[in-house]
Amino acid sequence: MKTILRLMVGLLVWTTSWAQTDTTKSNPAAFDQLFGRDTTLRTAKDVQLKLNMDATYDRPFLSVGKSPVSVGGYLEANTQYMQTDGVTEGLSFQMRRMTIFLASTINRRIKFLTELEFEDGTKEINIEFAALDIELNPMLNLRGGIIMNPIGSFNQNHDGPKWEFIDRPLSSTTIIPSTWSNVGFGIYGKVYRRNWVWAYEGYVTNGFDDRIIVNGENRTWLPATKANEDRFEESFNGVPMVTLKTALKRRRVGEIGISWMGGVFNKFQDDGLVLDKRRRVDVWALDFNTVLPTKTVLNGEWCWASVDVPTTFSQQFGRMQQGGWLDVVHPIVRRRVFGWNTAVLNLALRVERVDYNVGKFTETSDPIFDELWSVVPGISFRPSPTTVIRANYRYLWHTDLLGNPPARTAGFQFGFSTYF
């Protein structure tokens, strides 16, 4: 931990001096007015080097007159017919989510943005992001409020209209809790050098609680802690969680990101009385994306989670989890269609795997399973870059803890997602 922090501080000092010798010759005020959302972007060339961590501001907003507040959002809905081992519940229509963005430039280099999400109609209403940003230098910006923890790529860059698939990736929703956010503060920044961009983020926030091992799933399940609404008010155990990410991108090559999130998840003392030792949860993620000369987009992520499960728990609670996904998207048609000048028809394929219990049984040394594989071919039509109509066929097989023949789930999904 201390080594990682020293490395981040050293890189910050070095790249801050580097950025000061490579400032843009353009007019920053005019550029901010044109591109407006991320003040660390200084030239049109910089816009072509956007990273996953830029997704917070990389959204369409609408301003009316002299109103200080810009508004935006997105919607996604679909229908699906799925069956598991021949058993089906029939055809269902789903209103997955509607999200509203509100942003305001309070003063030059002082900005506020919030993201409010309504899931499954109004079954869940969440504030996913609500933070104040203060820019001191392109390499040193302050952020505080409800922060989207920058673990992996999908957690920040999760907007439905950006994806060709109806379901979110398994590992990014069941190992890394999807749209995982907490109250806290931290710093972020980036530096450009010719065809390169390097960026970092670092935050301290409230963290997980013991729901990750005491839950209805009867397995280690990090998403269970999202049910703790008190995490936006107080820490479960008084120990902050730390999240660090760094990303590097080269024009016409691609982006690679490395991130880590960790902290204590249990209540180890109460009113000075020691209840247990401090038990940690640590999550690492590696993500990348690139565009091949054929215009084929490759986008992927792999993550690991280590949980200090008490020895009194059975072996069905995994102490190590891992999983990842790879998306391949290839445009087969790019032309004017029905009056839409920038229409694109894409073929897409997602391959993903998660292992919720990496290890072997103590008694027999046989491998522990509890794993999922999924293959999702699809086709999507984009009448514009901000709207996607998509059809997927999902095939998933789940092997239980003992490695019995897998349960197989398959079905069709059709739906749309659009910014508004």
Explain the layout of strands and helices.
Layout: H1 2-20, H2 28-35, H3 44-47, E1 69-84, E2 87-107, E3 110-119, E4 124-137, E5 140-148, H4 171-174, E6 181-193, E7 196-205, E8 241-250, E9 254-264, E10 269-270, E11 273-274, E12 280-291, E13 297-307, E14 320-337, E15 340-355, E16 371-384, E17 387-399, E18 407-419
Antiparallel strand pairs: 1-2, 1-18, 2-3, 3-4, 4-5, 5-6, 6-7, 7-8, 8-9, 9-12, 10-11, 12-13, 13-14, 14-15, 15-16, 16-17, 17-18
Organism: Larkinella punicea
Signal peptide: 1-19
Protein name: Porin
Please tell me the CATH architecture by its name. Answer: Beta Barrel
CATH topology: Porin
Q: What's the rounded overall pLDDT mean?
A: 89
Summarize the helix and strand pattern as letters.
HHHEEEEEHEEEEEEEEEEEEE
Number of helices: 4
Number of domains: 1
Kindly describe this structure:
- The chain is mainly β and 420 residues long.
- The chain has a single domain (2-419), classed as Porin (Beta Barrel).
- It is 8% helix and 51% strand.
- It has 4 helices and 18 strands.
- It has a 16-stranded antiparallel barrel with strand order 1-2-3-4-5-6-7-8-9-12-13-14-15-16-17-18. A two-stranded antiparallel sheet has the order 10-11.
- The radius of gyration is 22 Å and the shape is globular.
- The two termini are 42 Å apart.
- Mean pLDDT is 89; it is low at 1-44.
